Fold Novel toxin 17 domain-containing protein.
Amino acid sequence: MKNILLSLMPGGKITRMGGKKILAFAKGNKGGGKAVLSKKSVFKNAQLPTSGKIRYVPSSSWTPSQPLPKINGGYIDKFGNVRKKGPSRTKGQSFEWDVQLSKTGKNQLGHLSRDGSHLNVSLDGKITHK
């Protein structure tokens, strides 16, 4: 994986990392320390929903310094649901999340799904269709 070095201004935001590992340092820091990425910035980089009813919630043990938990090409959330990119039905969004529901997910969200086993979720955390 290629590293990219950024110099951040106070209050600056990283809005897109393009799948590359980012080493970010505060302005004036000559690389002697690490900038701390927020959970939300990591989720936004992966284009996971940070708002809406079906937003991404990681396990409580996950920290932004770790890679997001994945299995079979999908992101695993706190409840064991797996989110994979799928074709979008939402105008202006290049893809939507196909959320395969875990046992816990089926109990909590299955009533919102046509088949009880998956949901289609837009980038802003809304169910796109049943």
About this structure: The two ends are 38 Å apart (CA to CA). The chain has a mean pLDDT of 82.
